[in-house]
């Protein structure tokens, strides 16, 4: 009769942190269009990029950039 108990539990694996977060639901790319004013070109549109499948001639969305209290909106 051979009953051997493992003397050493194999290095107790630390509880796998179940925080493996799935990559956030695929975020659509941002539009990123810079503001039309040269002084504000660092302001870029935070709206999702327009759907590339839209037919030509589809008007662009209203570009927006929220910076704290300031909201920039341009066409
Ligand atoms: Zn935009």
Provide an overview of this structure.
There is one protein chain. The mean pLDDT is 83. By secondary structure, the protein is mostly beta strands. It has a domain at 27-49 and 60-75. The protein has a two-stranded antiparallel ribbon with strand order 1-2. The protein has strands at residues 63-67, 70-74. A hairpin with a 2-residue loop joins β1 and β2. Zinc ion is lined by residues 31, 33, 45, 47, 61, 63.
Using DSSP, what is the number of strands?
A: 2
Largest sheet descriptor: 2 strands, antiparallel
Helix content: under 10%
What letter string, H or E per element, gives the SSE order? Answer: EE
Which stretches are low in confidence, meaning pLDDT under 50 for 5 or more residues running? none
Overall shape: elongated
In spatial order, strands of the major sheet run 1-2
SS-derived structural category: mainly beta
Strand percentage lies at: 5-15%
């Amino acid at each position: 009769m051979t009953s051997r108990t493992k003397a050493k539990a194999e290095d107790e694996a630390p509880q796998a942190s179940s925080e493996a977060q799935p990559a956030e639901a695929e975020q659509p790319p941002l539009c990123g269009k810079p503001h039309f004013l040269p002084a504000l070109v660092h302001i870029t549109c935070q709206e999702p990029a327009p759907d590339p499948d839209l037919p030509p001639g589809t008007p662009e969305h209203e570009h927006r950039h929220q910076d704290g209290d300031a909201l920039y909106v341009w066409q």
